[in-house]
Amino acid sequence: MGASLIFAVWYWFSPSYTDVGYRPEQPVPYSHKLHAGDMGMDCRYCHNTVERSAHASIPPTATCMNCHEQVKTESLRLRKVRESYKTGEPIPWVRVHQLPDFAYFNHSAHLAAGVGCASCHGRVDKMVVVEMKQPLSMGWCLDCHRDPEPNLRPLDQVTNMNWDPAEEVYDPKQDPERKRQVNPPLHCSGCHR
Amino acid sequence: MRDLKAYRHGYWRSLDHRAQSHDEEADAWREFPEGAKQAPPVPADSLSRRKFVGVMGASAALAGSVATTGCIRKPKEEILPFAERPEDLIPGKPLYYASAFAECGSVAGVLVESQDGRPTKIEGNPRHSGSQGGTSTFAQAAVLTLYDPDRTRAPLQGDQVAQWADVKTAVGEVIEAHVAKKGQGLALVLPQVLSPTQRYQLQQLRERMPEAKVYVDDATMPGNVIAAAELVGGEGARNFHSLTDTRVVFSADSDFLGGETDSTRLNREWAATRKVVQTTDEMSRLYVIEPHLSSTGVMADHRLRVKSSLVGDVVIALARSLDGQGVTWPAAAAGVIAQLPQVTLDEGTTKFVNALAKDLTKEENKRKTAVLIGERQPMWVHALGTLINAGLGNNGTSQRWIFDREAIRLTPVSELAKASDVETVLCLGTNPAYDTPAVLGLADKLAGLQTIHFGLYRDETAAIAKWHIPVSHWLETWGDLQALDGTVAIVQPLIAPLHDTWSITEWLGFVASGSMLDGYSVVKYGYSERLGGAFSEKMWRRWVHDGVVSGIPREPVLPKLDWTKLAEAVAKGRRAVEGTEIDFRLCPKVADGRLGNNAWMQELPHPITKITWDNAAYMSAATAKQFGVSDGDLVSITVNGRSIKIAAFVAPGQAEDAITVSLGYGHDWGSVGKDVGVNVYEVLPASDDGDIPWFAGGQVAAAGGTHQLVSTQDYGRLKPPTLMGVEYPERPIVLEATRDEWAKDPSFVEKVNLMEPARLKHLWEPPEMKGKQQWGMVIDLNTCSGCNACVVACQAENNIPVVGKKQVANGREMHWMRIDRYFRGDEDNPTAVVQPMSCQHCEAAPCETVCPVAATTHSPEGLNDMAYNRCIGTRYCSNNCPYKVRRYNFFNYNLDLRPGEFWTDDADGARLRQLQKNPDVTIRFRGVMEKCTYCVQRINQAKIEAHVAGKDKVADNDIMTACDQACPSGSIVFGDISDPESKVSIARNSSRNYQVLRDLNVRPRTSYLARIRNPNPELV
Description:
The complex is a heterodimer.
Chain A: H1 2-12, H2 15-18, H3 32-38, H4 43-46, H5 61-68, H6 79-87, E1 93-94, H7 107-113, H8 117-121, H9 138-146
Helix pairs in contact in A: 5-6
Chain B: H1 5-8, E1 11-12, H2 15-21, H3 49-68, E2 78-79, E3 95-103, E4 106-115, E5 118-124, H4 137-146, E6 156-157, E7 160-161, H5 164-180, E8 186-190, H6 196-208, E9 213-216, H7 223-233, E10 237-241, E11 248-252, H8 263-272, E12 285-290, H9 295-298, E13 302-305, H10 308-324, H11 336-339, H12 347-361, E14 369-373, H13 379-391, E15 399-403, E16 411-412, H14 414-418, E17 424-428, H15 442-448, E18 450-455, H16 460-464, E19 467-470, E20 479-482, E21 488-491, H17 504-513, H18 519-531, H19 537-546, H20 566-573, E22 580-585, H21 599-603, E23 611-612, E24 617-619, H22 621-627, E25 633-639, E26 642-650, E27 658-662, E28 695-706, E29 710-711, E30 736-738, H23 739-744, E31 775-780, H24 789-797, H25 805-809, E32 818-824, E33 831-837, H26 846-850, E34 856-858, E35 864-866, H27 876-880, E36 887-888, H28 907-914, E37 929-930, H29 936-948, H30 962-966, E38 972-976, H31 983-988, E39 993-994, E40 1006-1009, E41 1011-1013
Parallel strand pairs in B: 8-9, 8-17, 9-16, 11-12, 11-14, 12-13, 17-18, 18-19, 22-27, 24-26, 30-41, 31-40
Antiparallel strand pairs in B: 1-32, 3-4, 4-5, 6-7, 6-19, 10-15, 20-21, 22-28, 23-29, 25-26, 25-28, 31-38, 32-33, 34-35, 36-37, 39-40
Helix pairs in contact in B: 4-24, 6-17, 7-13, 10-12, 10-13, 13-20
């Protein structure tokens, strides 16, 4: 009885069970597969603050309209986007990757270290609807912070979804492009403040 | 063990403490801090412990059932991006905008941090002369007022909510009716006008309605200083002080370090003359005479207790003594000194004055002296002060004059009480029904007139007004402000008005011109009109960006000085006080009452008495004995037949037979400020000859009854308890020496340790610290005047909750930083030292070793980390902390808003208060320990920026903790102690550097620079 209870909590209460695979319905059926995969748009076209800020930032409606003023101008699926652009009201996107408020994750630091988007977010270029691929739990974060090298890639390959760390040979210590070697924090205040 | 007798100096924090140190046996081990009151017994009908446990059990069961039904994923959260993102805005990155605000007669330029469009924190603007990068407590507290849920959200006609359109029509009609009569019957009541735009509007008003009256109601305006400047220099003359390069400063009742005009700038300038590194370095000397120990008095090298009414006599004696020293008086003051009345002073004071006069006239101090007269002093003392400064050759150095061509002489509001032909009164940002002497009867008068009140709150004046019209806070407003030295700053809004309001400038424009223009147009087009072709868009943008108006050539015009009217003014103004002297002061926390509803300021301990949430009648121990009262006993104070009852508090350093009371308390509105303290305006005398009276004779008597005063002065005393019969000697916490002692023994700070450093052993190995940078802090006790700016800055930066008077009484205040104040010597006439104390970030931290869940651990860079989500609230860490700097959330202070204890609140109000929170710092929950983090969010931000730029280390100066940045005197230095070139390392190398309780071998990362006093050998 006791052992099964412990197992139940350990398995069913962990983010690997509760969070991985979380795929909420979005107000606009935006397909990352179409945009980032088939058309090959760079992540940073829309998530353009990712190198400068803690947040990767959901793009403003205006970014969508850069193209959609020219293409698919009548599409029914884009009705909410056009409406938002006209009225100035934001589109209520549903957050997929959600950390607790006491964990302060910073995108810019991870990009500067050469951690690929796909390492945490999975192959977004193959997702019609975005879902969580990794548990984003503290233990999972620390696995990489303790041994970051397997997840590092050349700094110019960060947004390349096809760059697979398992197949490529890359030694960050030998990379002349890197101005500093990564030294991820393992202490509490590294992420909690 | 070394003999500490010579270095102990016998410091004490309170009179209780002083009494006990003579009777150390009585000081047994106590669970609660001394001075803390035990919580009152729980009333029968409230939640009993048993019931609480029952409820908790039920809720745990409920939580279990929720969990088993599978609702354990985090709640759904939406992301709402802009439809069109504003230029330069990067979500998650704060932006800083320059602005300015008026504080106590002058202007402070500020940089306001905007987090995703919300102003959250205020820093000083280094480009502005009034700030030079530092801020005051008032500046730090401004964001809380902006989001105050008590701010009126809709206009009121009487008690009825009105529509904005109706308001504008109604006010317009009232104004037009007066325009038809050239303004007859119309009165405007304004605070001190420092805005060039508003002055321009007042000129327009005068053209449109020449008969309209404009009154000024502003207790923070240094009215007597201005009157004296005009007596000497003619209408439009203004003077101010600069302490750059001074060697001798004499303050006659001037609290220039603690809240008088330009105190932020003067703090910085004065501190620069006190920063000594070598024993041979130059250091200025400060003489202070005052009735009530102030922040300036704490810093004095020589301080005399002098009643306010006798300060002028001492200044006369000084002028005569200087005359005797052969000072050459200006030609325009020929014979004036001889006409001064004869004064008799006691022997000690005479000696003081003569020594001071000698010091002021020394050859090496020539043109490097300053005489500052307190704003509370009557006009004639100021006029005499300007003469003394002129005689000492300080015109152009420490005493600056400007001629303000556009100065508008406004009638004091006391004249409004006498005016008989007024029908309509517009109170624009003023509260005359409260902050004028009650003897004037303005409240009754305004209630009978057509009063229209424009203000942030439904205050005393609003309650009696026909209309109450909410206005914008300065953080929502366009405007401009001119400092005393002529620097003009542009005020720019950080956020659109939260409550759909217009600003005072906009309303004044409406009254003056008849049309309502937006503030931006009013300010900008005002400049373009006045400057004509010289104005350009580029220029305007630069002003707004820098926060300072530049590029306009100015020809400084100096007023022609003439002291011939001085003797007459002295004869007319000098008068004795009968009975006990009652001294009125602006409160260093709530000023004249304008911050009365600001919970940060109410909870802030008073800089000297450490009283929170109250004002009190401060008196010396001898005076208290005379009236037969002690702390908390009510006394009645009667002035001119009006009286109040207020709690007595024995304040060391107070002049005999002089009782000091602070204005600004006893509001009858506001969920924070209502009924806090006593309204002293009730007994404030009114001016009868243009002088603003700040002291008067009164009758004092014990009134029977008590009032609980909560003072934090005994909290967190760093005295080892007597344990198991072993008595440990009290160790020196603050260290000080005179310049001579320091020169004789440069390493005097080393001598106070009980143990040789070599004998100190660790019980266990301290954590390894392999970080590339090692953080540390140095606080210079020689320049810290204990002004409290750091305490409020810390509160704003780190989302520190307010707990209310009852919780402070229980010793549960949450300030991460406290300023300890120690006295030494005689109980009535002690010297004092202040010492900011927050987490010392010990390398071998005692708190870490006792935490059962490793919630507090060490970072490789030497920070004592606190992981809130691990903390289970055993409070062992706090118990084991030798510095008593850990704070525990006994309640969920951020959410549990219990009526009466904190503030009543509605959902909108709660949302408003959320807007102030710093998103980079976790909001702590009930049951969690917290403490100073060295602003780890700022450290991390700087580190990440450095890393993104490819650098391994953060450059010196790239990290400023909130306290460091706010400090007006630059007393706090933070940085990397492993870098020998960093500012903090250089400070640590000083021979004055010491660690508090070094014998404990906990190796604190915060160290202090010992206080050096610079006494005059003639007075020792």
